[in-house]
Specification:
Radius of gyration: 18 Å
Strand content: over 45%
Distance between the termini: 26 Å
Number of strands: 27
Order of helices and strands: EEHEEEEEEEEEEEEHEEEEEEEEEEEEE
Helix content: under 10%
């Protein structure tokens, strides 16, 4: 797996680029994630299985015809790599996530009810390390953000269609799940305002963070921290409106915001002072590819950013 390690700007450093050989083999890198241990995973699909949306730019504009075969490439934090084949994937993912014991979660963005029973159909599949599916479940409707924690739990932030769509966990806007799809956490009135949509997510040690937009009258963006062991929830206003990426370490945070139609991002740094997040610096960085939705993920103070078929990182 190609890596160059160069500095791009704004503190961003190049980590990995999709191998040219995979392009020659007709594969496109689509969904991606960074696991709790800092492993980067990218799911590639052959071009013949894909169709492209007319009005959506970048990799998010490609969707597979199901079922399809995929190739999972994993770049370990120690620099080693792994290739894993997935055969006959029945659902088109919007998100993928790494779990303990080498497991992989693939999840569609939307969920549907069964026409006969009215029950919610599975929209997520759990794959074993050998590439064989081992379970399925429903993680709510209109999943905009998905991240896993060190304990193997799955955390989701939902969009406004999911909050109005009738699924009991999606209605609250944020949810925590077991890897098998059982709900294990909900906000239960502990948010300062009604969520509207999820923007980004990050983990910091045992904590899980969401960046979410408010559906209330103030239209604010909030940073919400959840402690899975206790369920404790803390929310503060974000110093950056509607960021695409976020990472946090202690009292320091870094945000990115993409420039639509440009190969550039705004990198914003902030610090927690007297209980409020305050911007301490801002810069603009050119990046090697188009930055589109689902471009950022935070892990233990490092913000991972996808720009085209290149992955970058910046520390909080």
């Amino acid at each position: 797996m190609d890596a160059d390690g160069g500095v791009v700007g704004g503190g961003l450093r190049a980590v990995w680029r999709a191998p040219v050989a995979e392009r020659w083999a007709g594969r496109r890198p689509l969904w991606w994630t960074v696991g709790p241990a800092g492993d980067l995973a990218v799911l590639l699909v052959r071009r013949r299985h894909l169709r492209r949306g007319r009005h959506v730019k970048g990799w998010v504009g490609w969707s597979p015809r199901t079922p399809f075969d995929g190739l999972l490439l994993i770049r370990r934090a120690d620099g080693s790599s792994e290739r894993r084949s997935l055969a006959g994937v029945p659902l088109a993912p919007a998100h993928i996530a790494l779990l303990p014991d080498g497991r992989l979660l693939t999840a569609a963005g939307r969920a549907r009810r069964d026409d006969t029973t009215g029950e919610w159909r599975p929209n997520a599949l759990l794959w074993a390390a050998d590439g064989v599916p081992r379970g399925a479940g429903c993680l709510g409707d209109d999943i905009e953000v998905l991240v896993t924690d060190r304990g193997g739990r799955v955390w989701t932030a939902h969009g406004d269609e999911g909050m109005r769509g009738g699924h009991p966990e999606s209605t609250a806007g944020l949810a925590g799940w077991s890897a098998e799809g059982r709900p294990v956490w909900g906000p239960r009135g502990r948010l300062p305002d009604v969520p509207l949509r999820g923007r980004a997510a990050a983990t910091e040690g045992e904590h899980v963070w969401f960046v979410r937009s408010s559906g209330g009258g103030d239209g604010e963006t909030y940073l919400t921290r959840v402690t899975p062991a206790t369920g404790e929830t803390t929310s503060r206003r974000s110093p950056v409106p509607a960021p695409d990426g976020f990472a946090v370490r202690g009292a320091r945070a870094v945000f990115t915001r993409r420039e639509h139609g440009r190969h550039a991002v705004e990198v914003v740094r902030a610090r927690l002072v007297d209980g409020a997040w305050t911007v301490t610096g801002c810069s603009r960085a050119r990046v090697p590819g188009r930055v589109v939705p689902h471009c950022g993920q935070g892990r233990d103070g490092a913000l991972w950013l996808r720009a085209g078929d290149a992955w970058l990182s910046v520390d909080a």
